[in-house]
User: Which sequence fits this backbone?
């Protein structure tokens, strides 16, 4: 049985509850590089990393998504490994945890400024033929969206003018953020001129975040001695079978597994944007130079109606997590459901079958079911535009390996 009294003081408990229920806009470091669906707040990740780990300890996120866990772990001086089957997630995680130099970021800004005169929509297009054939420009060639699409083609064609891989990665990430602002769930598509202006503005704002993260990471590197220079590892693969991954084996057991797995019965587009209603586009993969190799059913553990597949993937994933954990590992999850009262009990049975035992906090015994819940105000998934649904309620679960 986990002894909460040893690690959790009254003030710690207060901070934990506040972190779970934090509803402030996500910001700081590189967290706002891109709005990845269903991400938890940096305050939540930071609090749990501080609570359960020390500098130099290993933190693992097997469903890293937008890399909130990795960014916070590295900034706090922890080693970290992130895993995600979505190649877009891997691109974001790798970019958001890069250590940038000022001159690299200045080079990207200068390059972007010099592009302004060359982004003339009357010029012949530079078509991204391979991506077009593969369907990555689907639904962005209409009357209102083609100027954004053509501007993107021009900018991406000029990326090779940047000197380093990190500069090109950063530029792509800025394009992703700007394009998401312009196209995803947008009622009015901005003009090409507005897009260019926003692109430059985002370079400035994201450069500040990149430098803030780089400064924190460099400072945190001095908090512990490590012969392994790979303090942050991002793996583009399934969580199932990660116990066989050489990098994971070499890193040793994690002190904390901190994650948010796909939500049961909730339709979340981790891989596409919604264009002017319910039309979808895989354009973010084209912009990130990544491939959508799996699709919705893989990213969500199965289609909305196929819950048996969800539970199968969940069980196999957590069996792998049990293989890399030890008695000192804390598994902390933030989970949401389409029907919490029905699905939570079965979810917990799956985690139990994988080899983990739930650790409830005694001080919360008189609060609802003894677990930490939070409501997400005004949450609207793509599946509904009519208001909040069951997934607006999320719960934080703590588990340890069975004795």
Assistant:
């Amino acid at each position: 049985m986990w002894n909460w009294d040893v690690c959790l003081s009254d003030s710690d408990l207060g901070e934990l509850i506040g972190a779970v229920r934090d509803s402030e806009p996500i910001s700081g470091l590189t967290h706002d590089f891109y709005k990845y669906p269903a991400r938890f707040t940096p305050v939540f990740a930071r609090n749990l990393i501080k609570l359960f780990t020390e500098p130099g300890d290993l933190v693992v996120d097997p469903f890293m998504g937008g890399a909130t866990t990795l960014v916070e772990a590295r900034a706090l001086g922890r080693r970290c490994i992130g895993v995600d089957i979505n190649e877009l997630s891997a691109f974001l995680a790798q970019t958001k945890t890069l250590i940038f130099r000022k001159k690299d970021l200045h080079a990207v800004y200068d390059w972007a400024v010099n592009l302004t005169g060359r982004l003339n929509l009357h010029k012949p297009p530079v078509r991204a033929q391979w991506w077009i054939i593969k369907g990555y420009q689907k639904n962005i060639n209409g009357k209102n969206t083609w100027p954004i699409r053509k501007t993107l083609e021009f900018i991406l064609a000029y990326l090779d003018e940047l000197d380093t891989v990190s500069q090109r990665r950063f530029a792509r990430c800025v394009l992703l953020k700007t394009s998401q602002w312009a196209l995803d769930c947008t009622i009015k598509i901005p003009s090409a001129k507005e897009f260019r202006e926003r692109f430059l503005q985002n370079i400035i704002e994201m450069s500040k975040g990149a430098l803030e993260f780089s400064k924190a990471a460099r400072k945190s590197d001095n908090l512990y001695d490590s012969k392994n220079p790979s303090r942050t590892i991002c793996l583009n693969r399934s969580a199932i079978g990660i116990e066989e991954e050489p990098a994971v084996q070499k890193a040793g057991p994690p002190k904390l597994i901190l994650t948010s797995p796909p939500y049961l019965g909730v339709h979340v587009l981790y891989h596409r944007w919604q264009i002017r209603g319910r039309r979808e586009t895989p354009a973010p993969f084209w912009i990130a130079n990544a491939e959508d190799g799996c699709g919705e059913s893989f990213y969500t553990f199965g289609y909305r109606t196929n819950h048996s597949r969800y539970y199968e993937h969940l069980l196999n994933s957590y069996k792998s997590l049990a293989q890399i954990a030890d008695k000192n590992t804390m598994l902390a999850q933030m989970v949401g459901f389409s029907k919490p009262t029905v699905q939570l009990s079965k979810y917990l049975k799956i985690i139990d079958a994988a080899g983990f035992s739930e650790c409830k906090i005694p001080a919360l015994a008189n609060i609802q079911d003894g677990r930490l819940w939070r409501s997400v105000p005004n949450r609207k998934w793509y599946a509904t535009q009519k208001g909040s649904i069951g997934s607006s309620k999320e719960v934080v679960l703590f588990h340890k390996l069975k004795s």
Notes: Strands lie at 58-61, 79-84, 232-236, 256-259, 273-275, 279-281, 330-336, 356-358, 372-375, 393-401.
